[in-house]
Design a protein that fits this description.
about 90 residues, mainly alpha, 5 helices, elongated
């Protein structure tokens, strides 16, 4: 499994919404060092290399995970929805 996929899957299933957090999205990272770059633009840049087929595989895997874990299902579905909106 590629590192980016395992990172996204672990974030989605661990309760961390670091990669899809709409609250931190518009905040600048560090204006002195990165200029106008925000957390959202940095996340989009990081995942820009993911092809549509790879993204579909990630979504399918997360949807399967959601069906296996009723407790985390709402959170996983929220992460999928936010990720698809943001990327």
């Amino acid at each position: 499994m590629p590192p980016w996929m395992s990172t996204l899957k672990s974030r989605a299933t661990s309760g961390s919404n670091y990669h899809t957090d709409d609250i931190h999205g518009p905040q600048p990272i560090n204006p002195r060092h990165y200029g106008d770059r925000t957390w959202l633009t940095e996340k989009q840049r990081k995942f820009a290399m993911v092809s549509p087929a790879q993204a579909a595989a990630i979504v399918a895997d997360l949807e399967y995970k959601a069906t296996q874990d009723e407790f985390q299902r709402p959170m996983i579905e929220q992460v999928i929805k936010q990720a698809l909106q943001n990327y």
